[in-house]
Amino acid sequence: MKKTLLFLFGFISFLSYSQDEEVHSIYFEFDKYNLKPEQAEAVVGFIKKLDTSKVETIEIFGYCDDRGKDAYNYKLSTDRATTVKNKLIEKGVKSKIIITLEGKGRILIDDDVLDNVPEVRSKNRRVDVVVNYKAVVVSHLGVPNLYEKLPKNPAVGQRIYLDNVLFERGSSKLTYKAKKQLDYIAKQLRRHPKLEFEIQGHVCCTPYHTEAIDRATKKRELSTNRAERVFKYFYYRKIPKSRMKTKGLGTAQPLGKGSRFDRRVELVITKI
Q1: Residues contacting 96, CB < 8 A, separation 6+
Q2: Which of 27, 91, 124, 206 has its CA 20 to 30 A from that of 112?
């Protein structure tokens, strides 16, 4: 009920993927970047409700619909993101934790979207406030057979949760931090030359599809592409291809601990 009222009241809604709320989207009117008072207060209210002891950084991304010229849309999307940032700082959010402010320009409508184009466009005129949480100790999640590194005595069925192999939303590109963890895991894997494993890619938050779109390819193959990107990096680090398989699981296997744990890659040991 609260979610519906907020949307009707000020073009604003929460994206809550479980008990963890990590993205807050603010929807703007066509060709506008100003916030109405009720929208501004709802944005700040969202941040205040977060457990700040777990928040590491905040990123702000602005978007436009698919109409208009690129240069204009980039400026408009940046203005929208800047408006939200200024409001957060005005209401007490520390500027040092806002590490990204970016106007992404227009969002193209997917080829498979044939109905409700006006509604899709209205949801693309938005700013996403993305809350990044501090690193989690995997053992604290209480998930059986889930580890943050290769166990000393590996066994078939054990899963290694790559907590630093994180991606931008809609991207399968490896970050510097992700590569550092993969370097460490590759070193461990070389100590167990007979060990074989499956690289499983996961995504979160796709209510209408089990797979998400990779921005680079414009296809619904994001979890598969993430797994294959890790495969290629391990091969680059001298892990034989014969030891590895890949699988994209989309949203089929959530951990049940919140959406921020579901944008992940896991290694599942298949043979010792």
Answers
A1: none
A2: 27
28 CB contacts (<8 Å, ≥6 apart)? 11, 80, 125, 126, 127
By the 8 A CB rule, do 211 and 152 touch?
A: no
Strand partners, 98: 58
CA gap 164, 204 in Å, rounded: 16
Q: In whole angstroms, what is the distance from residue 18 CA to residue 259 CA?
A: 7
Tokens of 109: 């409508």
Q: Which two tokens stand for residue 125?
A: 């005129």
* b/e burial code for range 4-19 (CB count within 10 A of at least 16 → b): eebeeebbbbbeebbe
pTM: 0.55
The Cα–Cα gap between 128 and 61 comes to 5
Taking phi over 0 as left and psi of -120 to 50 as alpha, with beta for the rest, 27 belongs to beta
The phi and psi torsions of 129 (rounded to 5 degrees) equal -95, 110
Structure tokens, 247: 């699988």
The amino acid present at 1, given as its one-letter code, is M
Q: Kindly report the CA angle at 220 between 217 and 224, in degrees rounded to 5?
A: 85
Q: How far is CA 181 from CA 32, 57, 119, 157, 166, in A?
A: 42, 20, 41, 21, 10
Residue with tokens 């106007």: 103
> CA dist 14 to 33, 160, 170, Å?
19, 32, 19
